[in-house]
Amino acid sequence: MAQFEVLDQEGMNFVKITIENEMVRAERGALCWMTGDIAMETRLRFVGRAITSYLSEESFIRPRYIGTGTIYLESSFAGFHVFEVGSESWILQGGAYWASEGSVDLSIRREKMWASIWAGEGFVDWQTQVTGPGKVVLVSQGPVEEITLEPGRKLFANGKYVVARTANVRFRIERTTKWMVGAYLSGEGYCRSYEGPGRILLSSTPYWRYRMFVQQPQPMQQAAAVE
Fold first, then answer.
1. H helices of 158-197, where?
2. List of residues 6+ apart from 88 with CB closer than 8 A
3. For residue 103, what pLDDT is reported?
4. Could you tell me the CATH number of the domain that includes residue 27?
5. CA distances from 204 to 123, 141, 201 (A)
């Protein structure tokens, strides 16, 4: 069974993966360095997936690492969260996928166009869906907590704070108040609504270094990336 470790050094977080005669996947471009008897394979089974990846922010080309050795993925001011998929399917927020065990099946899912538009994602919002069993590593802005939603219970989030949700959780865009005027007077307007039953992974408080980095002017971010 592959081992995923979230480590930190010099204020940066990164993922170390140890494999022994097995296979793992990782996000395209995520590799920092690796050692051992490991072969990397990249497959593109369908041209349609390449077109979908181009039209969205979600990459559907995830290299496979096969063999025995150690893999270190790129570091980030953001955080990483390892969780067990189990027997359920999970839908990941766009850009949240980072790595997974070979036993985890990856597929793509498109949100309903109306919800996608009101959420500010445009006409097309493709997301990664993972089905277990096995471990998955997520990218998050900060620490992640799991919340269980009972049938009919809702959670409202005014932003992309939900990193992942089980496939049975219903996602919509709704007002937090009964009347439209009240919603806008409150300053909240429309929010992302998640209705149970099911589970969600929530990251509402960013790491302070990550918050400072994303709030920098764009030229400074580009200079930091070059360095």
1. 180-185
2. 131, 132, 166, 167, 168, 199
3. 95
4. 3.60.160.10
5. 26, 8, 10
Domain presence at residue 73 = yes
Locate 189 and state its tokens.
């307007």
More confidently predicted of 19 and 221 = 19
Q: Does residue 83 fall inside a structural domain?
A: yes
The answer to whether position 227 is within a domain reads no
8-state DSSP, 86: T
Q: What is the DSSP string of 11-25?
A: TEEEEEEEEEEEEEE
> Nearest CA to 139 among 102, 94, 192, 86?
94
150 located within any domain: yes
pLDDT of 226 over the 50 cut = no
* 8 Å CB contact between 106 and 52: no
d(CA 32, CA 15): 10
- Domain hosting 113: range is 3-222
Higher-confidence position of 79 and 49: 79
Regarding beta strands 105-110 and 145-149, do their DSSP bridges make them parallel or antiparallel, or are they unpaired? unpaired
> Which whole number is the average pLDDT over 144-161?
94
Query: Alpha-carbon distance 64 to 196, whole Å?
Result: 34
CB atoms within 10 A of CB 196: 20
User: What gap in Å lies between CA 112 and CA 144, rounded to an integer?
Assistant: 26
Among 6, 7, 11, smallest CA distance to 211 is for 11
Q: Rounded distance, CA 220 to CA 57, Å?
A: 23
* Tally of domains within the chain: 1
